[in-house]
Automatic annotation (TrEMBL), chain A:
The chain crosses the membrane at residues 9-30. It is a single-pass type II membrane protein. Residues 1-8 are cytoplasmic. It is found in: Cell inner membrane; Cell membrane. SUPFAM superfamilies: Heme chaperone CcmE. Gene3D superfamilies: Nucleic acid-binding proteins. It comes from Vreelandella subterranea. Heme binds at residues 124, 128. Pfam families: CcmE (PF03100). Belongs to the CcmE/CycJ family. GO terms for biological process: cytochrome complex assembly; protein-heme linkage. Residues 30-162 are extracellular. This is Cytochrome c-type biogenesis protein CcmE.
From TrEMBL, chain B:
Belongs to the CcmC/CycZ/HelC family. It comes from Vreelandella subterranea. Coiled coil: none annotated. This is Heme exporter protein C. The chain crosses the membrane at residues 21-44, 56-84, 96-117, 129-149, 161-181, 201-221.
Amino acid sequence: MTPKRKRKLYVIVTLVSLAAVAVGLTLYALRANINLFFSPVQIAQGEAPMSRSIRAGGMVKVGSVSRDAESLDVAFTVTDFVGDLQVDYQGILPDLFREGQGVVVVGELQDDGRFRAKDVLARHDENYMPPEVAQALEEAGYSPADFQAKAAEVGQQRKDDT
Amino acid sequence: MWGLIHKLGSPKWFYYRSAALQPWCWGVATVLLLVGSVWGLVFAPADYQQGNSFRIIYVHVPAAFLAQSVFVAMAVSGLVFMVWKIKLADMAAAAMAPLGAAMTFVALFSGAVWGVPTWGTWWIWDARLTSMLILLFLYLGVIALRGAFSRRDSGARAASVLAMVGVINIPIIKYSVDWWYTLHQPASFTLTSRPAMPMEMWLPLLIMVVGFYGFFIALTLTRTRSEILRREANTRWVKALLEEVN
């Protein structure tokens, strides 16, 4: 490489590194704002503001969903397996909403510590599988969380069988 | 070694050598895309939770891969152009940019369509979606910057610098789902680990991904070749070539 090209390469590398450091520091400083939601344990520790619209996220606790027979009122618990958050919601839930699944709720914290949601968004995990595999797993007594490790196993078994 | 690089950097040499390669790239890409779409959209099993809307993955994931890869390719071309003054690299970068922008748009649009039935919203300002939107603006910025100068060389340098600095956004997109809480789930399909789905689902996805890359290579070859003709229109070899055709 000629000295001129080398110098140019150094200038570019320095420029890009400095820009990367600047962006990195900015993102680090803003990390609390970039996080889409507060987890239940953060809310329990008082990190989330009261009576302001916030988002909370976690898993819908298994067995916690209770629906009102007369209206669209529904109550459930969102958990991160450390803290719990009681959520009240009135409206239609997304199709993927179910117990043991991830969820993001938008709304306000009430004085009694309950969360009044005006929107419920379903979060899904990165695992996909055909319904037969899922059903076979459920019958074998696995919860959705351990599905994936098992799905590979079942797929392998199927291949061995044929 | 240096001899080969200088040959590669010669537009004329590239124009003649790539002629034979071009139909193969288009052929392979077309076959893979046809096989992948029919397999993915018709024969692959539906998901246990999402049903058929899961099939959007066969467009969404390859488009998102390409959106990021094209930007990296553009930044590398920009570096080669700036440091080694190889004009061919700049022609390739100019040829790639619109495809990258289009793929970013496809990824955002298919994601929005997918978000409505699964998440219950078409847009949310989470880190993954926002960084992807920034990528679209970066592409548009690179394209606009190139056209904003009356001297082509100035436009090319400005576009190269923006591409090289903008590449910082790529790791942010990739790791956004790991660094922050997002609505978007982590990656199902990566180079490094086993896919989070059974083979009858990921094999068509792999074919689609390879097909999208094939399409990118084929389109970039074709567009770079026409860019070469446009920029070298006043050289003797292009004039001779045109006389041959007429």
